[in-house]
Amino acid sequence: MSDIIDKSDRQRLVAAIQKAEKNTSGEIRIHIENTCPEELMDRAAFLFEKLKMHKTELRNGVLFYLAMKDRVFAVLGDAGINSKVPEGFWDNIKAEMTTLFKNDDPIGAIETGVLMAGEQLQSHFPYQSDDVNELSDEISFGK
């Protein structure tokens, strides 16, 4: 189902993940599908677990879930990051992303959200010299 977005957009988003993770031990994943087959946050939580994002050492993974045809998205952080970020942090990211989605820039919306999450992860989970990339930077796709 990787035909949801083209190759250059995939490369742009992977580059955003790599840039966001460069100065943090945090992990960011993007999962994109056409439609959301269940309640939005239930689907995001299911994929968070399926992608083993809860298995990072510091519990500092962030999932960006998007159902493109349904025009819905969720940003889901693990327990470690949620215990550190300020209240409303995810709302700020979602608001920025929503503005770009409304301007018909879905790739820019995702890229902006990823980079904003990376900045916050950097301040709470700085890069360590022995850091290991615990999760793939590749985008995963659903139906």
From TrEMBL:
<dbReference type="InterPro" id="IPR007621">
    <property type="entry name" value="TPM_dom"/>
</dbReference>
<dbReference type="Pfam" id="PF04536">
    <property type="entry name" value="TPM_phosphatase"/>
</dbReference>
<feature type="domain" description="TPM">
    <location>
        <begin position="3"/>
        <end position="118"/>
    </location>
</feature>
<protein>
    <submittedName>
        <fullName>TLP18.3, Psb32 and MOLO-1 founding protein of phosphatase</fullName>
    </submittedName>
</protein>
